[in-house]
Amino acid sequence: MACYRSSVPSRPATQHPLFARFFERVGARNEQRGQAGLRAELLAGLRGLVLEVGAGNGLNFPHYPVEVDEVLVVEPEPYLRERAGLAAERVAVRIAVFAGTADALPVANASVDVVVCSGVLCSVPDVPAALAEFRRVLRPAGEFRFYEHVRAGSRVRAAEQLVLNTVWPRLMGGCQLRRRTGAAIEAAGFTVRSSRELIFPAGAKFSPVAPRILGAARSG
């Protein structure tokens, strides 16, 4: 656990109690609708020391390969962090859960082999700052795995746009659905090794969170 850096300045707790409980209920249903397979794809082939940022209640945990030495988990929301701690006890891979935020990770420079995030970059206040932190904690040529909501196509009606920009973030823990996350990852200095666009659930007509990307990048 030498990579844990306790000297990081503390941040106020990110509390979204209603959203946290909604996320837990809907997340379980989405796993049965095919998202479990996407999580398995996200984490396939990982090994070494992994940092997962914004793990929620731990939906990724059952999909980590046994070759992973340990997963350090940073989750800012207290209720979800508690649930993640319970989920960590039910899997074979060793998992340690900490409080923290994406823009101030309690992890030392160049100390982890992989950073993982899913459904995180849509909600962080400062995407470049979070991505800079991911690069800081990764070892040279470390890997970044991502599964994220992204901006929908341009054919979004004005009323839908208003909902996406105002109502949705307030209800969904700050989630922003108009971000060009793939471009932001490249702009942060990552070399994207693979990335594919998808719709989840498959065949969704209009869902704010349907457009997504899943991929992997290198830190250098």
Question: Would you mind describing this structure in some detail?
Answer:
There is one protein chain. The protein has a single domain, classed as Vaccinia Virus protein VP39 (Rossmann fold). A 7-stranded mixed sheet has the order 3-2-1-4-5-7-6, with helices on both faces. Strand 2, helix 2 and strand 3 form a beta-alpha-beta unit. The chain has helices at 17-43, 78-88, 127-137, 158-171, 181-187, and strands spanning 48-53, 68-74, 95-98, 112-118, 138-149, 191-199, 211-218. The chain is an alpha/beta fold and 220 residues long.
From the structure above, extract its key features.
220 residues, Rossmann fold, seven-stranded mixed sheet, 5 helices
Number of helices: 5
Q: What is the name of the CATH architecture? A: 3-Layer(aba) Sandwich
Kindly estimate the percentage of residues that lie in beta strands according to DSSP.
15-25%
- What name goes with the CATH superfamily? Vaccinia Virus protein VP39
Number of strands: 7
- Estimated structural class: alpha/beta
**Regarding CATH, which class?**
Alpha Beta
CATH topology: Rossmann fold
Major sheet summary line:
7 strands, mixed
User: What string gives the helices and strands in order?
Assistant: HEEHEEHEHHEE
Rounded mean pLDDT score? 82
Please mark out the parts with pLDDT under 50 across 5 or more consecutive residues, or reply none. Answer: 6-10, 154-159
